[in-house]
Amino acid sequence: MSEIGSVFSEHSYGEHGMIEVIAEEKLQYAIGVLDSIGKARQAVGSALARAAASGKTAAKKPITEEYTLSASEFLAQTKNINYFTRLSSGEIRVSFGFRGHVIPLTKFDTRVDGSGRVVTRVKRTGTAETLNHAFAARIGGHYGIYERIGADRFPVRQLYGPSTPQMIGADKAVSDAIENKAIETFKKRIDHEIVRAFNGWGCNRK
What we know:
By secondary structure, the chain is an alpha+beta fold. It has helices at residues 25-36, 40-66, 71-77, 164-169, 172-199; strands at residues 10-13, 19-22, 79-86, 92-101, 103-104, 109-112, 118-121, 129-131, 134-139, 142-148, 156-158, 160-161. The chain is elongated and about 70 Å long.
Protein backbone atom coordinates (compact mmCIF):
# COMPACT_ATOMS: atom_id res chain seq x y z
CA MET A 1 0.00 0.00 0.00
CA SER A 2 1.31 3.45 -0.94
CA GLU A 3 2.34 5.79 1.87
CA ILE A 4 1.60 8.81 -0.36
CA GLY A 5 -1.54 10.93 -0.15
CA SER A 6 -2.85 14.25 -1.44
CA VAL A 7 -5.15 15.33 1.40
CA PHE A 8 -3.67 17.79 3.92
CA SER A 9 -4.85 16.62 7.32
CA GLU A 10 -3.85 16.51 10.97
CA HIS A 11 -3.65 13.33 13.04
CA SER A 12 -3.11 12.52 16.69
CA TYR A 13 -1.66 9.49 18.41
CA GLY A 14 -3.85 8.77 21.39
CA GLU A 15 -7.01 10.41 20.04
CA HIS A 16 -8.76 7.04 20.50
CA GLY A 17 -7.07 5.44 23.49
CA MET A 18 -4.99 8.34 24.77
CA ILE A 19 -2.07 7.23 26.89
CA GLU A 20 -3.42 7.61 30.41
CA VAL A 21 -2.01 7.29 33.90
CA ILE A 22 -4.15 7.39 37.01
CA ALA A 23 -1.99 9.11 39.63
CA GLU A 24 -1.12 6.66 42.39
CA GLU A 25 -3.08 6.88 45.63
CA LYS A 26 -0.05 7.99 47.59
CA LEU A 27 0.16 11.10 45.41
CA GLN A 28 -3.48 12.09 45.68
CA TYR A 29 -3.19 13.88 49.01
CA ALA A 30 -0.06 15.77 47.99
CA ILE A 31 -1.61 16.83 44.69
CA GLY A 32 -4.77 17.85 46.51
CA VAL A 33 -2.78 20.11 48.83
CA LEU A 34 -0.92 21.61 45.89
CA ASP A 35 -4.22 22.21 44.14
CA SER A 36 -5.51 24.10 47.20
CA ILE A 37 -2.57 26.52 46.94
CA GLY A 38 -2.77 26.74 43.16
CA LYS A 39 0.33 24.66 42.41
CA ALA A 40 -1.14 21.34 41.18
CA ARG A 41 -1.47 22.43 37.56
CA GLN A 42 2.10 23.71 37.51
CA ALA A 43 3.54 20.53 39.08
CA VAL A 44 1.55 18.07 36.99
CA GLY A 45 2.03 20.14 33.84
CA SER A 46 5.79 20.15 34.26
CA ALA A 47 5.89 16.38 34.85
CA LEU A 48 3.66 15.87 31.81
CA ALA A 49 5.92 17.97 29.60
CA ARG A 50 8.94 15.89 30.64
CA ALA A 51 7.01 12.65 30.05
CA ALA A 52 5.88 13.70 26.59
CA ALA A 53 9.41 14.79 25.67
CA SER A 54 10.82 11.43 26.78
CA GLY A 55 8.17 9.62 24.73
CA LYS A 56 9.01 11.66 21.65
CA THR A 57 12.71 10.89 22.11
CA ALA A 58 11.93 7.19 22.49
CA ALA A 59 10.03 7.28 19.19
CA LYS A 60 12.65 9.21 17.22
CA LYS A 61 15.17 6.41 16.66
CA PRO A 62 12.84 3.59 15.53
CA ILE A 63 10.73 5.91 13.38
CA THR A 64 13.70 7.46 11.57
CA GLU A 65 15.17 3.98 11.09
CA GLU A 66 11.96 2.86 9.37
CA TYR A 67 11.10 6.04 7.43
CA THR A 68 13.32 8.25 5.27
CA LEU A 69 12.70 11.19 7.58
CA SER A 70 15.51 12.97 9.42
CA ALA A 71 15.55 13.04 13.23
CA SER A 72 15.30 16.84 13.26
CA GLU A 73 12.29 16.74 10.92
CA PHE A 74 10.59 14.10 13.07
CA LEU A 75 10.93 16.33 16.15
CA ALA A 76 9.75 19.41 14.25
CA GLN A 77 6.69 17.60 12.89
CA THR A 78 5.63 16.05 16.22
CA LYS A 79 3.71 18.20 18.69
CA ASN A 80 2.84 17.17 22.24
CA ILE A 81 -0.66 16.78 23.65
CA ASN A 82 -0.72 16.93 27.47
CA TYR A 83 -3.46 17.68 29.92
CA PHE A 84 -4.93 16.42 33.16
CA THR A 85 -8.42 16.23 34.59
CA ARG A 86 -9.84 15.55 38.03
CA LEU A 87 -12.31 12.66 38.06
CA SER A 88 -15.54 12.65 40.08
CA SER A 89 -13.77 10.26 42.46
CA GLY A 90 -11.20 12.98 43.14
CA GLU A 91 -8.39 11.17 41.36
CA ILE A 92 -6.16 12.93 38.85
CA ARG A 93 -6.18 11.48 35.33
CA VAL A 94 -3.11 12.42 33.33
CA SER A 95 -3.26 12.14 29.55
CA PHE A 96 -0.76 12.80 26.82
CA GLY A 97 -0.04 11.93 23.22
CA PHE A 98 1.19 13.47 19.98
CA ARG A 99 -0.27 15.30 17.01
CA GLY A 100 1.00 16.36 13.63
CA HIS A 101 0.02 17.01 10.03
CA VAL A 102 0.85 14.81 7.06
CA ILE A 103 4.38 15.66 5.93
CA PRO A 104 5.29 17.08 2.49
CA LEU A 105 6.86 14.45 0.25
CA THR A 106 9.94 16.64 -0.15
CA LYS A 107 10.85 15.86 3.49
CA PHE A 108 11.35 12.20 2.59
CA ASP A 109 13.78 10.58 0.15
CA THR A 110 12.43 12.31 -2.95
CA ARG A 111 14.24 13.44 -6.11
CA VAL A 112 13.62 14.36 -9.72
CA ASP A 113 15.46 12.04 -12.13
CA GLY A 114 17.14 12.96 -15.41
CA SER A 115 13.92 12.60 -17.36
CA GLY A 116 12.05 14.98 -15.04
CA ARG A 117 10.06 12.28 -13.25
CA VAL A 118 9.58 12.36 -9.47
CA VAL A 119 11.03 9.35 -7.67
CA THR A 120 10.30 8.88 -3.96
CA ARG A 121 10.84 6.40 -1.16
CA VAL A 122 8.98 6.96 2.11
CA LYS A 123 10.07 3.80 3.95
CA ARG A 124 13.71 2.74 4.01
CA THR A 125 12.77 -0.89 3.38
CA GLY A 126 10.47 0.04 0.51
CA THR A 127 11.33 0.34 -3.15
CA ALA A 128 11.55 3.73 -4.82
CA GLU A 129 8.26 4.71 -6.46
CA THR A 130 8.14 6.68 -9.70
CA LEU A 131 5.27 9.19 -9.76
CA ASN A 132 4.67 9.58 -13.47
CA HIS A 133 2.01 12.27 -13.11
CA ALA A 134 3.73 14.30 -10.42
CA PHE A 135 6.11 17.24 -10.75
CA ALA A 136 8.28 19.42 -8.51
CA ALA A 137 7.52 23.13 -8.41
CA ARG A 138 7.61 26.24 -6.26
CA ILE A 139 4.04 27.50 -5.93
CA GLY A 140 3.21 30.49 -3.78
CA GLY A 141 6.74 30.49 -2.42
CA HIS A 142 6.49 26.84 -1.32
CA TYR A 143 8.55 24.10 -3.00
CA GLY A 144 6.79 20.76 -3.12
CA ILE A 145 5.70 17.77 -5.14
CA TYR A 146 2.39 18.29 -6.91
CA GLU A 147 -0.03 16.60 -9.27
CA ARG A 148 -2.67 18.15 -11.50
CA ILE A 149 -6.37 17.69 -10.84
CA GLY A 150 -7.82 16.98 -14.24
CA ALA A 151 -6.39 17.73 -17.68
CA ASP A 152 -5.84 21.47 -17.22
CA ARG A 153 -2.65 23.03 -15.86
CA PHE A 154 -4.49 24.17 -12.74
CA PRO A 155 -5.70 23.37 -10.11
CA VAL A 156 -2.98 21.21 -8.56
CA ARG A 157 -2.63 19.47 -5.21
CA GLN A 158 0.45 18.76 -3.14
CA LEU A 159 1.53 15.22 -2.28
CA TYR A 160 2.37 14.11 1.27
CA GLY A 161 3.78 11.23 3.23
CA PRO A 162 2.24 10.08 6.52
CA SER A 163 2.16 12.16 9.70
CA THR A 164 4.37 11.18 12.64
CA PRO A 165 1.34 10.09 14.74
CA GLN A 166 0.38 7.74 11.89
CA MET A 167 3.93 6.34 11.86
CA ILE A 168 3.87 5.82 15.64
CA GLY A 169 0.44 4.19 15.65
CA ALA A 170 1.35 1.83 12.79
CA ASP A 171 3.97 -0.01 14.87
CA LYS A 172 2.73 -1.53 18.14
CA ALA A 173 6.26 -2.20 19.40
CA VAL A 174 7.12 1.48 18.95
CA SER A 175 3.89 2.76 20.49
CA ASP A 176 4.27 0.40 23.48
CA ALA A 177 7.86 1.56 24.03
CA ILE A 178 6.75 5.21 23.93
CA GLU A 179 3.95 4.63 26.43
CA ASN A 180 6.21 2.72 28.82
CA LYS A 181 8.93 5.38 28.66
CA ALA A 182 6.51 8.26 29.08
CA ILE A 183 4.70 6.66 32.02
CA GLU A 184 8.00 5.80 33.70
CA THR A 185 9.20 9.38 33.28
CA PHE A 186 5.95 10.85 34.58
CA LYS A 187 6.00 8.74 37.73
CA LYS A 188 9.58 9.80 38.44
CA ARG A 189 9.05 13.48 37.69
CA ILE A 190 5.77 13.99 39.55
CA ASP A 191 7.45 13.25 42.91
CA HIS A 192 10.20 15.72 42.08
CA GLU A 193 7.75 18.41 40.94
CA ILE A 194 5.65 18.03 44.10
CA VAL A 195 8.74 18.57 46.25
CA ARG A 196 9.68 21.59 44.12
CA ALA A 197 6.22 23.09 44.57
CA PHE A 198 6.18 22.51 48.35
CA ASN A 199 9.58 24.14 48.68
CA GLY A 200 8.83 27.02 46.34
CA TRP A 201 11.64 26.17 43.90
CA GLY A 202 11.29 27.98 40.63
CA CYS A 203 8.56 30.24 42.07
CA ASN A 204 8.69 33.99 42.24
CA ARG A 205 9.28 35.13 45.78
CA LYS A 206 8.18 38.44 47.19
